[in-house]
Amino acid sequence: MSLNTLAAVDLGSNSFHLQIVRVVDEMLYPLDSLKETVRLGAGVTPDKSIEPKTAERAFATLRLFAERLRGMPKNHVRVVGTNALRIAKMRSNLFMRQSKF
Prior knowledge:
Helix content is about 30%, strand content about 35%. It has a four-stranded mixed sheet. By secondary structure, it is an alpha+beta fold. The chain has three helices and four strands. The protein has helices at about 50-70, 85, 90-100, and strands at about 5-10, 15-25, 25-35, 75-80. It has one domain (about 5-100): 2-Layer Sandwich (Nucleotidyltransferase, domain 5), CATH 3.30.420.40.
């Protein structure tokens, strides 16, 4: 019997999601999930910056997710980001701050 705990983080345009599952014999069993409204897409300015209030909501959510993921091996976590995050000029700053969590 194989047993693992895995997590997926979806950094969407409207909300950020965290899903934690246990894998037992190729079956997924939900352990925890969180959804926080961030409105990242609405916080991207015409010059492709992220508004400070939006960035702070994102950081607060990432801190919450980090608490839930504490102790989980990094290679058991996958993160995907929305187009708003990929095109934003501040994305490198966002990820640099996030990596400290």
